Amino acid sequence: MVRHIPGAPTIVPKNMPAASGLAAANTLYTSTDRDGTTIGAFPNNIPMDTLFGNPGARFDSLKLNWIGSIGKLENICATWFTSPIKTIAQAREREVIVAAAAATSNSAIMPKVLNALLGTKFKIVPGYDPGSGMTLALESGETEGVCGLSWSTIKAARPHWIKDNRLNVLVQLGLAKLPELPDVPSALDLIGDPVKRQMLELILIRQEIGRPLAAPPGVPADRLQILRQAFAETMTDPDFLAEAERAQLEIDPLGAREIEALLATAYATPSAIVREAAALIEPSAQK
Predict the structure, then answer these.
(1) How many CA atoms within 13 Å lie on the side-chain side of 98?
(2) Helix (H, G, I), strand (E, B) or coil at 182
(3) Of 16, 53, 244, 246, which has the fewest CB atoms closer than 10 Å, so is most exposed?
(4) Distance between CA 111 and CA 51 in Å, rounded?
(5) For residue 203, is pLDDT > 70?
(6) What's the start-to-end Cα distance of the chain, in Å?
(7) In the chain, helix, strand, coil percent, each to 5?
């Protein structure tokens, strides 16, 4: 990105590993200089945490200056190839044990969401390491499946699972279907109840935003435009794309305006639907 910023400044990463990105977002919003020299890179939960009532969120997502997102989080639910459960309809008929990381991770949230909205019978076993722990649980038969896996992450970390047909992909969770999985149903298409569908759409906006970058409020417009333009140019930079391809990382960017449009839709959702969706995402925040 520095190649596309006038003067080619140095970017210094500073990790703030606390509260799933909340510490970093709160710091960016309240404590950093608003001159464009500090930006934040966040997990997908951050832009929606204030909407869903996370008590630790001390920022206004609609006032952050979004720069862009490197990629979306199109999730899938899948069982191991040896499981007799090979369709989402079968997952509605009997219990399916799925591995999950922390209680607030996608691998714990998504099966809970599908149980509530689609009537599936996923039994969530949390506490696994999000990388090797869940992988080994699947491959050893300790669990039958996993729900809430990023398709792009699987392609990067476990490409042989796809090549060797090691997964029964039951359903995909995204606002749009993945071109690579044309025969796998979308969870949105399986919901007939309009209220439940709107709940799921709201939750999936959280996924769509993916891996966003933002600057604090109050950054001068000309500097913000430089950051946004530099991000956009980086996303088409041949060297960057070649490096991403070598690492098997999927680049599917969103611009600042696209993020703002998604958040505008989310924050305009009727409060009753927000409360019901939040109870699935942030249960500790709900009365």
Answers:
(1) 33
(2) coil
(3) 246
(4) 21
(5) yes
(6) 43
(7) 45, 15, 45
Those residues whose C-beta lies under 8 Å from the C-beta of residue 52, and which sit 6 or more positions away, are 274, 277, 278, 281, 282, 285
Per-residue model confidence as pLDDT tens digits over 85-102: 999 999 999 999 999 998
* Local structure of 39: helix, strand or coil: coil
Q: Encoding tokens for residue 166?
A: 């090691």
Q: Range(s) for CATH 3.40.190.150 in the chain?
A: 2-72+213-285
Q: Tokens 């997102």 sit at which residue?
A: 69
Query: Which two tokens mark 175?
Result: 């606002």
Q: What is the pLDDT of residue 283?
A: 54
d(CA 76, CA 148): 6
What's the rounded mean pLDDT across residues 177-203? 94
Torsion angle of the four alpha carbons 85, 176, 109, 134, in this order, in degrees rounded to the nearest 10: 60
The answer to whether the CB of 75 falls within 8 A of the CB of 119 is: no
Residue identified by tokens 């500790």 is 284
Tell me the fold of 75-205: D-Maltodextrin-Binding Protein; domain 2 (3.40.190)
| Helix residue ranges per DSSP H, the chain | 22-30, 46-49, 106-118, 132-140, 151-157, 159-163, 194-208, 221-234, 238-246, 256-267, 271-281
Q: What is the pLDDT of residue 250?
A: 84
Rounded Cα distance, 3 and 10, in Å: 10
2-72+213-285 architecture in CATH?
A: 3-Layer(aba) Sandwich (3.40)
C-alpha span between 189 and 47 (Å, rounded): 25
